[in-house]
Design a protein that fits this description.
With 572 residues, this protein is an alpha/beta fold. It is built from 14 helices and 26 strands. The chain has a domain of 184 residues: Cholesterol Oxidase, domain 2 (2-Layer Sandwich), CATH 3.30.410.40. It is globular. InterPro entries: FAD/NAD-bd_sf, GMC_OxRdtase, GMC_OxRdtase_N, GMC_OxRtase_C.
Length: 572
């Protein structure tokens, strides 16, 4: 059916054929649109299911309180009831707006650790994923530096000429400084920052902000090039399915496409209530995220054959790994009541201080309204024998029963601890053949003995930090999980009741190694190291889905690493 809806917000008039069609204007999609449209000979279409990112609360950092679980900016997914969460179903926010998750996320700039990329290199057989540095193999640190516009200028660890703005937080809290001192007394030393390859220590998080405003990946990569006549952006346009041709030319059979049986030739779209078809002369690039990308592949006939057959979707290519291998960070939110220090709870109770917070932001772009969800962080090892930290704390100067609920009526802090290397694996699976139906998401949190043991250690270590002398003057009182819970069984039960996502889903179309015949070495492998889909020429998945294993901390920066490397591969 022909396109009859109004002209899109950016770029050229509607054309049914482009060189590259990018599905998803999230973090990766914005970078890809920037890089691929830099050559004026390339016609690029970027498709976004959500709307524009011009809403006030997207730009104000604390606006995540209004953008998450809001259908204006969020897909509003919920998980299946999870045995690891005592049967609970939880909100699973994913950005549905220009900028994607970078328009609603925590803004924390976290690269992960060198050990994370060693795992990626082993999984893919590609040493370019290694951290690298002077006289060491690997490209990861160098690419991060090239992408950054760091507040401190260029140095051995950072770059200043890139698009991703990285700044210090613009507010500090006396109670968080005390928590950092307490962590030091327990053995977690203060450090300058977390992005140097080994995150051991405690520091205030660096953030993706510019002068007190959220700096999304749309701000970094898309808006500056929106004027390019060869770049078209469709908003409020949902991808319904991939177009697959049986004809694959010899020059398309390379890398993961050596054994290609089909070629991705375009995408079927729903725009303005009508169905349109767009063709891709070169490639289709899926950047719809760890939930959206595998779901679109499944409804298009690319995925586990038994799942597709069950929902009467013709099997184009049996790809068992599509939607499997879901990994996420489960945070265990402990709450401690404190006295004698300001917290967001105490400030928010008084309308005068609330007004002062707003005025401080409007005049100075500083204060609590510039806060990310978590301000102070700490990394440590659950076992001294480990080579790098496997636990992270996000410490908030506030508390509430759960996201979306009112703050507690007393001063409190929330030290949340999470296992950075969970061994539990979940999945994303189509609910039926309707591409507009939300998929089923099951995280399977705490489904392994190792994850349950580390959860208990994390809760005990949190108690030890809170009992350190540096916090004694604030008389911390454990409210959650509660001091009566002492046994391992009690704390495991508490972890199931308190645990919730930090919104870091990855791995559902994982990169992996291939043998000399172009066949994946693992059943969970969907992509090669350049994000090309096995047996489907002209198709890549470039987003958090591609991670073979989850990184240590927030996942937005690693997604940008993947996108930059993939863009170079496409153009190279």
């Amino acid at each position: 059916m022909p396109e009859t809806s109004p002209r899109p917000e950016y770029g050229a008039e509607y054309d049914a054929e482009y060189d590259y069609v990018i599905v998803g204007a999230g973090s990766a999609g914005c970078l890809l649109a920037n890089r691929l449209s830099a050559n004026p000979a390339h016609r690029v279409l970027l498709v976004e299911a959500g709307g524009k990112d011009d809403w006030f609360w997207i730009k104000v950092p604390v606006g995540y309180l209004y953008t998450i679980a809001n259908p204006r900016t969020d897909w509003c997914f919920t998980t299946e009831p999870d045995p690891g969460l005592a049967g609970r179903s939880i909100i699973y926010a994913r950005g549905r707006v220009i900028g994607g998750c970078s328009s609603i996320n925590a803004m924390i700039h976290m690269r992960g650790q060198a050990s994370d990329y060693q795992q990626w290199a082993q999984a893919t057989g590609d040493d370019r994923w290694l951290w690298g540095g002077p006289d060491r193999p690997g490209q990861t640190l160098a690419i991060y530096k090239e992408l950054e516009n760091y507040f401190g200028g260029a140095d051995d660890w950072h770059g200043s000429a890139g698009e991703i703005r990285v700044e210090r937080p613009r507010v500090r809290w006396k109670i968080l400084d005390a928590w950092q001192d307490a962590a030091a007394q327990w053995g977690i030393a203060p450090i300058e920052e977390f992005n140097r390859g080994d995150n051991s220590g405690s520091a205030y998080f660096h953030v993706n902000q510019k002068r007190g405003r959220r700096w999304s990946m749309a701000d970094a990569f898309l808006h500056p090039v929106a004027h390019r006549p060869n770049l078209t952006v469709y908003t409020k346009t949902q991808a319904l399915g991939l177009l697959l041709d049986d004809q694959v030319s010899d020059n398309q059979r390379r890398g993961a496409w050596t054994t290609a049986r089909h070629r991705a030739s375009g995408v079927r779209l729903l725009k303005g209530g009508q169905i349109a078809t767009v063709r891709a002369r070169r490639e289709v690039l899926l950047s719809a995220g760890a939930i959206g990308s595998p779901h679109l592949m499944q409804v298009s006939g690319l995925g586990p054959a038994d799942l597709l057959t069950r929902h009467q979707v013709p099997v184009a290519v049996d790809l068992p790994g599509v939607g499997e291998n879901l990994q996420d960070h489960l945070q265990l939110r402990t709450v401690y009541r404190i006295r004698g220090a300001r917290t967001v709870n105490t400030l928010y109770r008084n309308w005068i201080t609330r007004a002062g917070m707003g005025l401080q932001y409007l005049l100075l772009r500083s204060g609590p309204l510039t806060m990310p969800p978590s301000t102070l962080g700490a990394f440590a090892k659950s076992d001294p024998a480990l080579s790098s930290p496997d636990l992270e704390w996000h410490v908030q100067p506030l508390s509430l029963p759960k996201f979306g609920d009112p703050l507690h009526p007393y001063g409190a802090i929330t030290p949340s601890v999470c296992n950075l290397r969970p061994t539990s694996r979940g999945h994303v699976r189509m609910a039926d053949a309707d591409p507009l139906a939300h998929p089923r998401i099951l995280c399977n949190y705490l489904s392994t003995d190792a994850d349950r043991e580390i959860a208990v250690r994390g809760l005990r270590m949190t108690r030890q930090i809170m009992a350190s002398p540096a916090l004694a003057r604030y008389r911390p009182e454990e409210m959650l999980p509660g001091p009566d819970l002492q046994s391992d069984d009690d704390l495991q039960a508490a972890a199931r009741e308190l645990g919730t996502t930090i919104f870091h889903p990855v791995g559902t179309c994982a990169m992996g190694a291939f043998d000399t015949h172009g066949v994946p070495r693992s059943a969970t492998t969907v992509l090669d190291t350049d994000c090309r889909v096995f047996r489907v020429a002209g198709l890549r998945v470039i987003d958090a889905s591609a991670m073979p294993t989850i990184t240590s901390g927030n996942t937005n920066a690693p997604v940008m690493l993947i996108a930059e490397r993939a863009a170079r591969s496409i153009l190279g």
